Amino acid sequence: MYRFRLSMLLFLHWQAGWVKQKSTPSSSSYRRFAVFIPSYKEDEVILNTAKEALKQTYPTEYFDVVVIADSLKPASIELLKAMPVKLVEVSFDLSTKAKSINEAFNVLPEIYDYVLILDADNIMAPDFIDKLNSRLVYTGVKAIQGHRVAKNLNTKFAVLDAISEEINNHVYRKGHRVLGFSSGLIGSGMAFDYRYYKSLMKTNNAIGGFDKESELKILRDGLEIEYVEDAYVYDEKVENSEVFKNQRRRWISAQLHYFRKYFLSGFYHLITKGNYDFFDKAFQQFLLPRMLLLGFVVLMAFISICLNGVFVFDLFPGVYFWVGIAVLKCSSVFLSIPNKYYNKQTLNAALELPKVLILMFLTLFRLKGANKKFIHTPHSGSVIINAEEEVESGVK
Q1: 3 state DSSP class of 69
Q2: Residue 390 Cα distances to 47, 48, 125, angstroms
Q3: What gap in Å lies between CA 60 and CA 48, rounded to an integer?
């Protein structure tokens, strides 16, 4: 199982590394977008996010910024009302993104072609909507994912989180598209056909991982998810171990939940309808988190080498197997890391890897109930960027 998965990962990394996704010519046909920004207690960042969202090069008459305000302070609400955005105020006993999005659908008129989902801390590059629109017009797909990149690299944890996201972009988005599979969704920087997604979300009651639920249902419907590599949206990375631990706990719990919910139906759709996309996504929920798998195979290789050298004893199925698997895994990771991260800052951040591995391992024993309550990831708002300057400085 591990050897099969690592071989596939290496193949995906290699393919994605050699193939450059073609840019789509800018379209003169404009679709109308509703930019949803669910904001739960995000007073620190939402005002700047809303302000930046209005700075798109896309014609202003073809998009509206919709802030879905859940538990914001009265002062923040008043400031948002003074901005040229649509404000949807919500209040729930148990807040979730799915509930906020559904409430916005309920109160807004169906005058839009697409809904674009952002996190409350996300900053779009100025041409983000324009590039999504061009690809949507060109392909006619109902779901599309942009390229989410780090907004901050101010701590070691933020650097590691940024690298992890880029590896996921390389494998589960670009790599999958190169091989003809659908791109994975991330949870923000993604757009959908408005009416289709409104209908889809009516049955989405997810507490954690609403994007996984959406992705699995889209693929179950036999639809394709596109990826636009050069459409950038900036996302705040976790800055400390406590936030990292809570975030990963939520992610792993959601992963296990959706494996139990969709694996059998994914297998059924594979056999009866040849739906490889749906099965592939359902099967992914079974796999160990990449960081834990990396730590496991490297540890097993180290133990195997030590046993073989000291006691002339091989750890089944042998030292060459474990060393080979470790080399494959490490190679696949290194191939996915963008060149800009090969620097002293990353080397210093790598010293935190043992701590990260321990935190993730301990998280496996604290998953109970994590998918039954909303675990909020706070954003500091300490990093304010100019998206246009970031693109010009060479984020590509």
Answers
A1: strand
A2: 20, 16, 8
A3: 18
Domain that holds residue 84: 30-239+378-388
Q: How long is the chain? A: 396
> Within a domain: residue 14?
no
**165 with 184: CB under 8 angstroms?**
no
Classify residue 176: in a domain, yes or no: yes
For the entire predicted model, the pTM comes to 0.85
> Strand locations in 307-384, DSSP E?
none
Q: Return the H-helix or E-strand segment holding 233.
A: strand 225-235
For residues 345 and 152, give the distance between their C-alpha atoms in angstroms, rounded to a whole number: 13
CATH, residue 218: 3.90.550.10
Per-residue tens of pLDDT for the chain, all 396 residues: 444 444 455 555 545 555 566 667 777 799 999 999 999 999 999 999 999 999 999 999 999 999 999 999 999 999 999 999 999 999 988 889 999 999 999 999 999 999 999 999 999 999 999 999 999 999 999 999 999 999 989 888 889 889 989 998 988 899 889 888 999 999 999 999 999 999 999 998 877 778 899 999 999 999 999 999 999 999 998 777 677 777 777 777 778 878 888 889 999 999 999 999 999 998 888 776 777 777 788 888 888 888 776 656 666 677 788 888 888 888 878 888 888 899 999 989 888 888 888 877 777 766 665 555 555 565 565 555 555 545 454 454
> Measured between alpha carbons, how far is residue 260 from residues 211, 219, 254, 288, 304 in Å?
16, 17, 10, 14, 34
Count of domains observed in the chain: 1
Question: Do 325 and 297 meet the contact criterion of CB atoms below 8 Å apart?
Answer: yes
